[in-house]
Amino acid sequence: MTKLFKYLKPYIWSIIAVFFLTIIQVGVNLELPGYMARIIDEGIMENQTDIIFSVGFIMLSISLAGAVCIVLAGYLAARIATGFAMVVREKVFDKVHDFSLVEFNRFSTSSLITRSTNDIQQIQTIVFMMLRIMLVAPLTAAGAIFQAYRTAPSMTWIMGLAVFVIIGVVVLLWSIVMPKFKLLQKLIDRLNLVTRENLSGLRVIRAFNAEKYEEKKFNQANLDLVDLNLFLNRLLALIQPLMTLISSFAMIMVIWVGARLIGDGSFLVGDMIAFMQYLTLVLFGFMMMSMIFIMLPRAMVSGGRVADVLASEPAIKEPLKSCSFKPGAPAIEFRDVTFAYPEAEYPVLKNITFIAESGKTTALIGSTGSGKSTLLHLITRFYDVSFGHVLIEGVDVRQLKFTDLYGRLGYVPQKGVLFSGTIGSNIKYGAPQADDYRAHAAASVAQASEFIDKTKEGLEASIAQGGTNVSGGQKQRLSIARALVKKPDIFLFDDSFSALDFRTDVALRQALKTETAQATVLIVAQRINTVMNADKIIVLDKGKISGIGKHLDLLKNCAVYKEIALSQLSKEELYKY
Ligand SMILES: Nc1ncnc2c1ncn2[C@@H]1O[C@H](COP(=O)(O)OP(=O)(O)OP(=O)(O)O)[C@@H](O)[C@H]1O
Ligand SMILES: [Mg+2]
């Protein structure tokens, strides 16, 4: 939590101003009871109306000054707290952008959402409270104790006793509350997760008639949170009455002891009233401090959670300097690459070595789960290899600046991802400077023109969040168009033709051939049709390469390839080429 305080730096002058205003405010509060005592002892007791008026006027004016200070300090503190929260939120957002999939898996998306919303809100609240109370409370309490002692030294022990009891109560509550707050934020994470899953999986939930089950899951998460919240709030609700009880007892004792002293003639009525006001101030100060101590644990937990995000270094780092590409080197080369997912026991890719020549089409085929997508993710640096090297034009991808690396790549993910906006904004995502003509050309190659033309607005047709208003196949085609507009040197298609019907698949691959004649293409596919024309086919089986070659060679020499091929096409079709 303290690590976050460095973001308060820009507000240092405002903070100093708040402190000064606070000191004035406390000073005013401490002065008032003294004047009150004078009004009573000199004005009322001795019937001097002019003293009542003149001292009353002074009291009014300094109260007014105090009120102005309170308003100003409150305004400044609110500005500091919200500004601080904004900066932290920005930092978290930036940090999360740099995260690799490793960090996403570690934190989980729902937790990252809680951390950047609810947790930061908690921190904002505590910063505001600290600015307003942290200084006011102890200053008021200390000042009031001093003034009370000056007014009536013989009664300060009552004050001491009351303070002692209050501290005892606060420590007790604190020890109960503190561990629960950690749990509370975890439960909010959980509720977030269930809600997110429910919202994004709504169709599946309906289709499987799983509403009851999901409802139960949601209710459980919700109830857990409610129970804990109730428990905490009941406990915190105890504070107010307990404090009132303690202060009432203290007052009764002051009146009881004070009345006897006044009877003896060693004490003035005004002084007793002033003492009672100081006592109220002391108790008020301690009450405020106890509130902070109760709020602090939650904010500390939140602060820790946010600081965790900010402190975690992305596993995938950009090098400081880019190496320059080696002309003539193959576009993509894997050198004895082995890769295991973090926390996984066994590697999913083992000793992968191959070359994808520049300007050629290389295809990657293998059964589901054989590691094809994983292999592409190593080129795009979503993950880094465990052993070995992945080279782009002769340079290890880990030695390339992101702009150099991603400038070369046109990646079409297995699961089409679109952003809310328009068809045009999605196609031009990787090349914002592209004009409509280029966007249309790319769409035409990607076989997306037909459905784009069908919409009234064309490129301006809107895309809903997550691309839910287009079909799976349309999403894939738009993703392909998005990669084409970039005109990259290397295309990576991860099973990008799977959601297309055969006719479109053929048309698309033919159009691609002319469009990508100069480019290196790496196609991942499960369909033999898609790969059989490739210059080179790599067969992946359970994370290992079981064959590299052309279609006919592989049919002869690679049992895995032959098995896949025969399961999809007849012998005649296979040997046609
Ligand atoms: N984030 C991950 N963490 C741990 N293991 C993973 C992760 N992603 C994939 N795997 C595992 O890695 C293996 C290879 O997955 P990959 O996605 O590369 O397969 P694929 O060949 O692309 O399959 P498909 O054809 O179905 O897309 C699988 O066994 C999978 O369980
Ligand atoms: Mg895959």
UniProtKB/TrEMBL annotation:
Keywords: ATP-binding, Cell membrane, Membrane, Nucleotide-binding, Transmembrane, Transmembrane helix, Transport
Cellular compartments annotated: Cell membrane
InterPro entries with a match to the protein in the record: AAA+_ATPase, ABC1_TM_dom, ABC1_TM_sf, ABC_transporter-like_ATP-bd, ABC_transporter-like_CS, P-loop_NTPase, Type_1_exporter
Transmembrane intervals: 12-31, 51-76, 125-149, 155-177, 242-263, 275-296
Segments forming domain ABC transmembrane type-1: 16-298
GO cellular component, one term: plasma membrane
Domain ABC transporter residues, every copy: 332-567
Any one Gene Ontology molecular-function term assigned to this protein's record: ABC-type oligopeptide transporter activity
PANTHER family cross-referenced by the UniProt entry: ATP-BINDING CASSETTE SUB-FAMILY B MEMBER 10, MITOCHONDRIAL, ATP-DEPENDENT PERMEASE MDL1, MITOCHONDRIAL
Entry protein name: Multidrug ABC transporter ATP-binding protein
Organism (species): Candidatus Falkowbacteria bacterium RIFOXYD2_FULL_34_120
